Amino acid sequence: MNTGKNEKVIIVGGGLSGPVMAMYLAQKGYNVDVYEQRADMRKQKLSAGRSINLALSKRGIRALEEVGVFKQISPFLIPMYGRKIHDANGSTRSLPYGRKGQHINSVSRSDLNKLLISEAEHTGKVRFFFNHTCTGVDIESDIIYFIDNQSEKKINVRQIPVIATDGAGSTIRKSISSQKFILEVLEPLGHAYKELTVPPDKTGDFQLDPNSLHIWPRGQFMLIALPNMDRSFTVTLFLPNNGEISFESIKTNSELVSLFKEKFPDVLSLIPDLTLDYFSNPTGHLGTVRCQPWNIKNFLLIGDAAHAVVPFFGQGMNASFEDCTVLNEMMETCEDWENLFDNFSKKRKIDGDAIADMALENYIEMRDLVNQQWFLAQKELEKKMEHQFPGQFISRYSMVSFHQIPYSVVQERGETQKKIMEWILENETSGKPITSEALEKEINLKLPVLN
């Protein structure tokens, strides 16, 4: 881009994608000021109830490698090779995520965020302004409004370009939307979550297999557990907001314990502080954020600020990091910031919508379909097809988690593959199996080889 050396860029939001974007910009010689509403988390104690571990996969790893911090983060990762399904009768079964050795990683949100902030500062090009709450922007005047939380002083920053990484509740998105420059749509899921803890056992070891993502699917609701470095598990209970079994219906200790005795008996004894965790930790709300466009003039939304998704594909962080990667790549070919932001929004919006849709679909898969025989039969067929047609037939989960294929392409190919598998299974059921020649012809016609 035709920009001056040492030009300053403003980033609003010091969460996960803010420091990553700042490091990409620092590599290109830009000075970056990052404004963050919270205090410096490196000096704070993490509060309970916040999602404290996340799933890191290929797209996120690429960004961390490119900004030079993945080696520093690697010691904090716990590999998870598949789902461990816990049935209501207490039995368990494993569903691998992909081919042998392929895995996603459980990582502490706070450990990762702290490290990213420190590494961004170490570039010498990035400054963080903590305790600065953004209250809005004036697009016409290129002003961002802040309040210093400590002095309560109002601060006006007149500087462009501005990249907003201030999360699902983005003040900048709301401010731009209120000025009629963009359209934002908030889609509540109607379900929420509560975080609980399975502590280490008496010997200090894990009480569950640490190399699996554990799921207790129960139709309209579920429980999941991810491992932590201290050998505990963060357990997340997902329930409808209202209904017979819901957050609304559980009001007492006895009602909560009864639910676990009936629906999650094998995990009840593993959570000694069940009632304390449940009634003291906040209830997290779930929903999807969509907006159009993601930019106006020299202001750009990325990450959750542009496309917050429900957590059921483990792609919120990875998609946000990939935003940074794509934006960094596009800087090589665009004329100026406004042109860059406009082209990025047009290119990336379809991928943001695609992963939002797939994450919603994956909730149904996790809480319900993993218990359905037809779904399990389809999964077995999927494995065979991947082996028979490598490079053409790749499971949707693998395309999302172990590749960097655009989400919109994954969504389209996933639908095509699903129809092909349904065609095969329907013909097998009717006693008219598809010939290998007909199958190969269909695959070559519908699924071009992926690079």
Given as residue ranges, the uncertain stretches (5+ residues, pLDDT < 50) are none
From the 3D coordinates, which CATH architecture of the largest domain would you assign?
A: 3-Layer(bba) Sandwich
* Alpha carbon gap, first and last residue: 28 Å
User: Quick check: average pLDDT?
Assistant: 95
Radius of gyration: 23 Å
CATH class of the largest domain: Alpha Beta
CATH superfamily of the largest domain, called what? Answer: FAD/NAD(P)-binding domain
Structural class: alpha/beta
Q: Tell me the helix content.
A: 25-40%
Strand order in space, largest sheet: 6-5-14-15-16-13-17
Provide a short characterization of the protein structure.
With 451 residues, this protein is an alpha/beta fold. It contains 15 helices and 19 strands.
Describe the structure using short key phrases.
451 residues, FAD/NAD(P)-binding domain, six-stranded mixed sheet, 15 helices, 24% strand
